[in-house]
Amino acid sequence: MIIKVNNLVKRYGDLVALDHLSLEVKEGEVFGLLGPNGSGKTTAINCILSLLKYDKGEIEIFGRPMAPDAYDIKRDIGIIMQNVAVFDELTVYENIDYFCGLYVPDKGERKKLVESAIDFVGLNDFRKFYPKKLSGGLLRRLNIACGIAHRPKLIILDEPTVAVDPQSRNKILEGIERLNREGATVVYTSHYMEEVEQICTRIMILDKGRMIADGTKEELKAMITLGEKITVETFSFSKENLADLKKLPNIVSAEYRDHLLVVKSGKGQNNLETVLDFLKKNGVTFGKIYSELPTLNDVFLEITGKQLRD
Ligand SMILES: Nc1ncnc2c1ncn2[C@@H]1O[C@H](COP(=O)(O)OP(=O)(O)OP(=O)(O)O)[C@@H](O)[C@H]1O
Predict the structure, then answer these.
(1) Which of 8, 9, 39 has the most ligand 1 atoms within 8 A of CB, as the residue to mutate?
(2) CA 18 – ligand 1 centroid, Å
(3) Is the shortest distance between the CB of 37 and ligand 1 below 6 Å?
(4) Residue of 228, 233, 283 lying closest to 250 (CA atoms)
(5) What 3 state SS string does 71-113 have?
(6) How far is the CA of 23 from the centre of ligand 1 (A)?
(7) What start and end residues bound the annotated signal peptide (predicted)?
(8) Where in the chain is the domain with CATH 3.30.70.100?
(9) CA nearest ligand 1 atom 24, residue
């Protein structure tokens, strides 16, 4: 096991930021911690890394107890936190070299690692730039290069794509997948469900410091009753139509607003057919019609009654 957290409790005064949180991250996983702002993701990461004291619980990394002075464990971890932490007076190259040098004293070996990290995040054209001259996205990439240059076994990234342009965002996500393919275990926190779905092999959903679900994206979606959301653009749908539609088999809910009929169906094969048949039989004319599978937001909504994003 790469990370094992057992019954972690963290309070800030009266606020319980982590409420008996337990989690395990296995070797080779890209483990996603997904939750809305304030759900406790950063607090969990800071406790796991012993950067923050906690009230209760046990944390092991690489099978050993984690502690603030566990330098042998920390050497094998790459940390990329939300706030970019680089030196303004050092260039891109010098920054990466500095952080890599904390773990790799040999200059020759370090040169290769720094070059490879620069290449990895695509900062070749910017190696002599000072951080102040970099855009937000490039700065994030520099932050990542500083965290991964020493080739850690475990890489922890806390919301690395917040306020990042789409090009840098894709580069970052592709990079994480590549690091994982090359052998690193990854922990990734985000409140963007699309990112977590794209790169994570297992996802834990947090709300108010508590785990509300844990599994692969397929397992999480299988936990809820919603199987399919069908949207129909129509200008003529009466209250009677809506009441009749709701009586059909496997319909979880139906709403008609602003010329859009939204039908939520349970799991099953023939939901779209059922809705189409109904529209035809009742002489309802319609424009676009499309069906969507549940998202992780639907999982969050069904379990907590709230949207993942405010
Ligand atoms: N130093 C602190 N003192 C008091 N309360 C705090 C402190 N840090 C965080 N909190 C509170 O603890 C809860 C969890 O915050 P945390 O930053 O861990 O959440 P998060 O999921 O990482 O959110 P975000 O995505 O906004 O960073 C929130 O209610 C937050 O307001």
Answers:
(1) 39
(2) 10
(3) yes
(4) 228
(5) HHHHCCEEEECCCCCCCCCCCHHHHHHHHHHCCCCCHHHHHHH
(6) 19
(7) none
(8) 225-293
(9) 37
Spatial separation of the C-alpha atoms in residues 267 and 252, rounded to whole Å: 10
- Could you report the predicted ipTM of this complex, rounded to two decimals? 0.96
pLDDT in tens, the chain (310 residues): 999 999 999 999 999 999 999 999 999 999 999 999 899 999 999 999 999 999 999 999 999 999 999 999 999 999 999 888 899 999 999 999 999 999 999 999 999 999 999 988 889 999 999 999 999 889 999 999 999 999 999 999 999 888 888 888 888 899 899 999 999 999 999 988 999 999 999 999 999 999 999 999 999 999 999 999 999 999 989 999 999 999 999 999 999 999 999 999 999 888 999 999 999 999 999 999 999 999 999 999 999 988 887 5
Ranges in the chain annotated CATH 3.40.50.300: 3-216
Cβ 35 under 6 angstroms from ligand 1: yes
- Of the options 3.40.50.1440, 3.30.70.100, 1.10.3720.10, 3.40.1190.10, the CATH number for the domain spanning 225-293: 3.30.70.100
Ligand 1 atom closest to the Cα of residue 82 is 27
Residue 207 CA to ligand 1 center (angstroms) comes to: 12
For domain 3-216, is the CATH number 3.40.640.10?
no
Helix/strand/coil percentages in the chain, nearest 5:
35, 30, 35
Q: Cα(162) to centroid of ligand 1, in Å?
A: 16
